[in-house]
Amino acid sequence: MVTDHSAGITPRMDPVKVREHFDRIGYFRILVIGRSNAGKTTILQRICVTGKAECRA
């Protein structure tokens, strides 16, 4: 995992290790709590890099 925050590099895991974790776990859930129109769905859509149909809030 890259951890050099001073250089402005975003920490990222090795894609092979990420695939291994997803294959082992299968799926996961995220609970996002906040007020109406606070951007909860937008955050999830950006994390999932998808639209409303695939990333259910």
Following the backbone from N to C, one meets helices and strands in this order, namely: HH
Main pleated sheet: none
Instruction: Report the average pLDDT across residues.
Output: 76
**What coarse outline follows from CA principal-axis ratios?**
extended
Distance between the termini: 29 Å
**Which structural category fits the helices and strands?**
mainly alpha
Helix amount, in percent?
25-40%
Radius of gyration from CA coordinates: 15 Å
- Give a count of the beta strands, DSSP E runs of length 2 or more: 0
DSSP strand content: under 5%
Number of helices: 2
Q: What's a concise summary of this model?
A:
With 57 residues, the protein is mainly alpha-helical. It contains two helices and no strands.
Q: What would you say this structure looks like, in words?
A:
The protein is mainly alpha-helical. The protein contains two helices and no strands. The chain is extended. The two termini are 29 Å apart. The mean pLDDT is 76.
Features:
57 residues, mainly alpha, extended
Write the layout of secondary structure elements.
Blueprint: H1 15-25, H2 40-48
